Amino acid sequence: MDNAPEIWKHVDDNAPELIALSDRVWGMPETCYQEARSCAEHTAELRRQGFRITENVAGIPTAVMGEAGEGGPVIAFLGEYDALPDLSQEAGVAEPRPLEKGANGHGCGHNMLGSAAMLAAIAVRDWLKESGTAGRVRYYGCPAEEGGSAKTFMVRDGAFEDVDIAICWHPHSVCDVMVAESLANARIDFTFRGRASHAAASPHLGRSALDAVELMNVGVNYLREHVPPESRIHYALIDAGGIAPNVVQANATVRYLIRSPDLKGLLPLIERVKKVANGAAMMTETTVEAHTLSAVANLLGNAPLEAAMRQHLEALGPPDFDDDDRDFASAIQGTYGPEEISDSLHMFGMDGVMPGPLCDRLVPADSPRLGISGSTDVGDVSWVVPTVQMWGATYAIGTPFHTWQMVTQGKNAAAHKGLVHAAKVMAAVGRQAILEPELIAAAKADLRQRTEKTPYVSPLPADLMPPLEM
């Protein structure tokens, strides 16, 4: 393995176009399966770069795949471009200033995520062409990571069947190889149906669906004491049945997000939550229907690929931030408390080690790390393809995910530098895998060992289609 300076040069050569793509997508934030303009931008860039295009991947209008090269192994770079609701924010200001009240915003950095993944794919494509090496590189534009589980549907549809390794990243405030730990989850709507009546004149004739929702929530609150401590159960009221208090509400829907450390634990936890829902229906003499919207598996690690990524990350070093970058990051840090900074560093075992506002050093290889307490549909890819990811430093240390602070930093110079830095690491891993068949063989052996006793089973119901109107 060498430091792959030529692949880094290919990244630098193509960086301006992909930074511009990131900024354009930042300016058109679209949520869960509605990323029509963002997907079109990614498709247009792939076409301009000469990639062979496959649209409507897995029957999803906002999923796209571009491929370049011939023969050899298939290296996949996973990209995303979905945003979040209610996070509209002006760029480059250290105060909450929505561009449009209630509108969307890129509060998780997926505008950069997809652009850097494509930049890495383009760099590998250029290296393949320049060196005459056999191999294929693919960019997968994946929508709806935020709650829509698009990659889970894509895995079920066989979109990754012939991929040899998959490479991805995610924006963060710290630069590191990602610990492959996340929570499997399922997103389920529970719809209760009862009987309407006049709440004062004839309450005895009504059967309240809203009461059933409230009783289910109480029951799940008691259930939380008796589940594995790493599990998480969240809910949101989707339909309260109406706004008139003098009506017994005949219909109501609550959405539950059920999380478990792994697929093995998720499925029985789902059944326990369903029993609570059935109990609430019995108590209120209503009926209940459970409709799964999406589900994802937990992440699986891959030791050979993680070691390779670590080598390239250490060879490259941290991003080269300047004083202007640090000044704005300090202003952002002034908008939240020291506990956010401490929590961010604690996740990487770096308590008190990085006093500056931006990541100026790598997390040591032996530093104790915590896994992701959230979920990602990259998990399903990692069960069927050897997968490796990194955290890329693009934000002020401590920046909370899914906040206006992330949105406002999404077009800054520091974000652009972190985007390019992540692309260099990912491209170098892809190049090494093509040059060293033994790395791919070791990665596949690692995956076989991890799934030998517990083979992958899709968490999606067999007849469930992507919730395109979610």
Protein architecture, described:
- The mean pLDDT is 95.
- The strands form 2 sheets. A 7-stranded mixed sheet has the order 1-2-4-3-5-11-6, sandwiched between helices. Strands 8-9-7-10 form a 4-stranded antiparallel sheet, with helices on both faces.
- Strand 3, helix 3 and strand 4 (135-142) form a beta-alpha-beta unit.
- It has helices spanning 5-26, 36-48, 110-131, 150-156, 209-223, 263-284, 303-316, 323-333, 338-346, 378-384, 404-408, 413-435, 437-451, and strands at 52-55, 64-70, 74-80, 135-142, 165-172, 176-177, 184-193, 232-239, 251-260, 287-296, 387-393.
- It is built from 13 helices and 11 strands.
Overview in brief:
By secondary structure, the protein is of the alpha/beta class. The chain has helices at 5-26, 36-48, 110-131, 150-156, 209-223, 263-284, 303-316, 323-333, 338-346, 378-384, 404-408, 413-435, 437-451, and strands at 52-55, 64-70, 74-80, 135-142, 165-172, 176-177, 184-193, 232-239, 251-260, 287-296, 387-393. A hairpin with an 8-residue loop joins strand 1 (52-55) and strand 2.
